[in-house]
Amino acid sequence: MTYCVGVQLNQGLVFMSDTRTNAGIDNVSQAKKMHSWEVPGERVITLMTAGNLATTQSVVSLLDERTKAPEDRNPSILEAPSMFQAARIVGQTLREVIQSHAPTGATADAAFGATIIVGGQIAGSPPRLFMIYPEGNFIESSPDNPFFQIGETKYGKPILVRAYDAAMSFEEAIKLLLVSFDSTIKANLSVGLPLDYQTVPAGRMEIGRQGRIEADDPYFDMVSKGWGEALRAAFAQLPGFRF
Amino acid sequence: MTYCVGVQLNQGLVFMSDTRTNAGIDNVSQAKKMHSWEVPGERVITLMTAGNLATTQSVVSLLDERTKAPEDRNPSILEAPSMFQAARIVGQTLREVIQSHAPTGATADAAFGATIIVGGQIAGSPPRLFMIYPEGNFIESSPDNPFFQIGETKYGKPILVRAYDAAMSFEEAIKLLLVSFDSTIKANLSVGLPLDYQTVPAGRMEIGRQGRIEADDPYFDMVSKGWGEALRAAFAQLPGFRF
Question: Would you say A204 and A188 are in contact if contact means Cβ atoms under 8 Å apart?
Fold first, then answer.
């Protein structure tokens, strides 16, 4: 599996993805799942992928090729007039790649399936965040549904539900995502460090901060240990059950 | 789905199960998923089920019928000489029920599949706890693996991993399970109140405490709200991330 989260904040967007990829438990490797295209001041588009690696790499390569040769730029995510149109191009590309390998066409159960989070900002519109299904259709985030998870989503969801706040700073959001990733990594071998993160500050149409949390990162280590202790302390403070 | 947890403590065993059952999101009902057989002072066996309701009810009914008529008592879980043999009977019964409805036999993906947690104590041995797969085989808990979850297991796992302690009292364990169930109920519609719980104190070969946490239970409500606040406070206390 994989674990990726895209979060919409008042300040902009935050993305985080793990890097573990596996074909069976005995064939584990590392792959970057976060990809960005940027025309500073005009647009920034970031994409994270979960699912069949051949599918997701093919989608990213196709999207990337179409941004390079000007004569092939239709449809290119660098030419899309809005994030909605960019999400349509990504969805269509995903659907085509899955269909080209699946004899019976794309279904949610397709062996070559993949799910994609895409977000960013194009000048003239606010930042937008989408989740794209293997069928190529997609949904958009909203204040009621301000983050998307793909891959191994369940372990890390309770803390996101409980502690997310749209007014968070980027730094607080990354701390929250690290706690969510730590819960997932502790419980599931298919998600692993290092973790990639990126911010897209609203209104700047460029990548803000980005970086990689390595396996020996002292801050992640502190969060991981501190969170275990904090959880036990929080649990101890809850009123006791009496028969 | 369903959510059931069986926990082994130094003091004995604790079981908790939800009661929601559904055949699609538009057909939701309530069913007890915890069943016990008891010969006080001699044996107590408790079973929790997840999966196809027709399968699990059939398994429970077959096990139950075989405890009633003395001439049919072979194999009966009330005659099994050990918890291991009782688990074998449950596994064999589960496998038979699944096979009788699945034309191609039992597989983990069988449409009529089910998973069972069975635990208890028979005089002469310590309490034992097993998880039984649809194929009828099973695994036993150990100090390295002191609890089993079935059904919608992922949301509620991180807190169990973090806060479980074999030396917990039954009351602390029920508080921990309520937190784990609350995280699951908050995230997944297929798990719902009321919750059934039961304890099996080591060495007594009888049911200890048992009860039902109803939807309007004031203690559960306090844990649910208190846990959200406690999580946010614990999160706020973690050291901040800096770019």
Answer: no
